[in-house]
Structure formats: structure tokens, C-alpha cells
Amino acid sequence: MDGNGLREQGEEQFAAYPEAVNLSTGLVIGRVRGIEIRIHLSWLLIFALLAWTLSSDVFGDLRPRWSEQERWAAGIGTTLAFFASVLIHELSHAVVAQRYGMQVPSITLFIFGGVSNLSGEMKSAGQEFRVAIAGPLMSWLLALLFAAVWLLMRSADAAVVPQYLALINAALGLFNLLPGFPLDGGRVLRAALWARSHDLLRATRIAARTGMVVGYLMIVVGGVTIFTFGEFSGLWYVLIGLFLRSAAAGSYQTAFVESALSDVVAADVMRLLPQSVPASLSLQRFAEEWLAVTPAELFLVEEGGAVVGMIAVAEVMAVPYNERSSKPVSAQMVPVNEVISVERDAPAVEVLATMQTHNVHHVPVLDDGRVIGMVAHADLLRQAGLDRRSRGEEAAGGSG
User: Which DSSP string corresponds to 222-249?
Assistant: First the structure.
């Protein structure tokens, strides 16, 4: 069977699930406890929409005496405070996960809140429950704090801001306890199923399907709200439902791949070293003499017998044709000290997380500082497919 056939076999498990959203990428805006804080592009949309809704509708109705500038200042300030609350909610998950020795490369704020990108899976159902419940508990604590601020300043016009933040944090905690994976309630459900069945993948599959059901129900509720009652607010339910459906599918895909790769290390799936090209070779000659006859996507770059970098086909194609003859390969390569790499005994799950964190599709494999091979994202998916095939054959043989 060729590589494409194996890849199709590995992805066959996901055929019944919609395409998943990628929430591990975004603009880095800071770092807390070694965790990158990212903003997904969708966050900009919800930030603008929420600030506009608060300024024009909520505060416009509750505080009609305020000037337009005052309403917008309150709307933008409240929106910033809300997303700070979401970030604290996610940090509570991350801190508890770090206490159990898990790595948390990043937290991404996106269209409906935030997500902590945990590296690997929990070691027990108890850990899963405690990490999951930390978020809603933190949201309710914030709700109590904002309620206390509201009580202290309830006679002032500005008291509407902490009042709104108290209500929205309480609602955030309740919403996240819906039994739909990957919401916190879905993770609590998965923890209960895992504790009962001792099968993490099966528990994830059931929790993910429950999450998809919750997503579809929210889409239906939103549609009824819009077309039956004429309420534009139903659009929120539709968008949240679409997100839940996609996120649940992505969470199961991730769990399946991690399960298949649980006993695999980088050396098990690495390819042979790519071909090497001279650093001084022009991009034009490189394209004509190497790319035209070699189907590889990645090449090592050598100078004086030592590897000094790597270059991908896409980096060559990005240079205009009329400039390639005057530019050497070294001008477009990624220097070796900037290349993201992994050790030969690195768990394949961690290799996959490294690729997702740094948004790369290939990583070199090192042994005592020396490059000995290359792992591609497709290699990991292919390995997951092979692992599933072998398990299926064993099960078929055992049943006979």
C-alpha cells in the first residue's frame, strides 16, 4: 500500500466528524508562567461585536444619560475585563495541569472564550476532573468578587459595569459545565466515563459525540429564536453550536491520534535524512537541477561539510523567478540554530505538540546534537493509521 493509501486509512476514523477548528495558533501577546498567551483572529470579531453591543444596546438602555464617549469607554472597558476573566478562567486550568506535571505551551483567546492547549493527556480520571472543574470554580469566584464591588458602589452609575461582569462570569461558569466536550462539563463527563470504563479513548468518543449533540441542539434553538421569534440574539446560539460541533470533532481526533502514538517515539517514525545542497548554489540552479528531478519537500543546506540550515520548496517558490539567479540557497534557508528539532527518544505525542505549537510540518531528529532523520506531520498521521490497522487485524484474528 502506498503512502496516500495509508494516510487515507489513518484518517478514515475521522470521516464521520466535521472539519475541526485549529485553536493552537494565533498572535502571541504575552507570556504567563511560561505559557504563551495567544489571540485567535476570531477574537477580534467577537471583541468588536461585544464592545459594540454593550456600548449601543446594554449601556444605551441602562444609562441613557451617558454620552456616546462614556458608553463606548464603558463598553470597551467591560469587554477587556470580560476577556481578562476568560484568561483567568483558562489560567486556572493551566495552573492545576502544571501541578500534575503537564506542559501548557499556550492559551488561545478565540471567538467564544479561550482554550488551554495542554501537551498530552491526563494520567487519571481524578486529574481530569480537577483540571476541568477549576475553570468554572474560578469563574464563580470572579462573579462573587464583581458582585462585591457592585454592592460597594451600587448607588453610582458606573456600578452597572461590575454588575454585568458578575452576571457574565456566573453565566460563563454555568455554560462551561454543559456536558459537551471540549467544554469543562464535557471533560467532567469524560472523567466520569473514564473512571467507570477505564478506557480514555472510548470516554472521549462518547463525550465528543455528546458535545456534537449539544452543538446541534444550540443551532436548532438559535434557528427557532431567529425565524420564529425574530430575535437576532439567536445568531449567538447558532455560532456557539457550530463551534461546539467542530471543537468536539477536533478533540476526538486529537485523542485518537495521541492514543495511537502513545508508545511511539520520534526515531520510530522518522524518515531518512533529506538530500543536502550547497549553501552557495543559486536558487535558479537549485530549482532546475534539484527540485525538477527530486520530489522531496525539504533539503538540508551544507557549507564546508557541515549542515548550516534547511530549505523547503515553498521558500524557493516564494522568490520571484527573475530574482532566483542572483540569490543563493543560503539567503532563503532557515539557519540551523533556528530550526525546531526533537531528540530521537522524544515521544511522538510531544513531537506532534511541538509541530502544532510552532506551526511547522517537519522537524529534524537529533542524536547527541547530530541530525539523524526527519519527522513530518504526515508521518505521524500515517503511524496512527498503521497502529489502528494492526489493532483491527489483531481483534479480527482474536475473534476467530
Answer: HHHHHHTT--TTHHHHHHHHHHHHHHHH
Pairwise CA distance, residues 177 & 135, whole Å: 9
CA distance 387 to 110: 33
Residue 182: asked if its preceding bond is cis (omega within 30°), the reply is yes
Domain-by-domain residue ranges, the chain?
14-177, 200-260, 266-387
CATH of domain 266-387: 3.10.580.10
- Helices 160-176 & 68-99, crossing angle to 10 degrees? 40
Helices (H) and strands (E) in the chain, counts: 15, 11
- Model confidence band, residue 129 (pLDDT cutoffs 50, 70, 90): very high
pLDDT in tens, 176-228: 898 888 789 999 999 999 999 998 888 988 998 998 999 999 999 999 999 98
How many Cβ atoms from other residues are within 10 Å of residue 359's Cβ?
A: 10
Instruction: Say how far apart CA 232 and CA 104 lie, in whole Å.
Output: 37
Tell me what percent of the residues of the chain surpass a pLDDT of 90. Answer: 31
Task: Tell me whether strands 362-367 and 342-343 are parallel, antiparallel or unpaired.
Answer: parallel
Contact between 298 and 311 (Cβ < 8 Å): yes
* Whole-number average pLDDT of the chain: 82
Q: What is the pTM of this model?
A: 0.67
> Please, are residues 172 and 185 in contact by the beta-carbon 8 Å criterion?
no
Quote the cell numbers at residue 354. 511541538
3-state secondary structure 68-104: HHHHHHHHHHHHHHHHHHHHHHHHHHHHHHHHCCCEE
| C-alpha span between 165 and 98 (Å, rounded) | 28
Q: Which residues pair with 114 in a beta bridge?
A: 109
pLDDT tens-digit series, residues 294-338: 777 778 888 887 788 888 888 888 899 889 999 999 999 988 778
- Contact (CB, 8 A) for 299 and 276: yes
Rounded CA-CA distance 107/135 in Å is 13
Q: Are the CB atoms for 67 and 56 separated by under 8 Å? A: no
Let me know: does 115 contact 156? Beta carbons within 8 Å: no
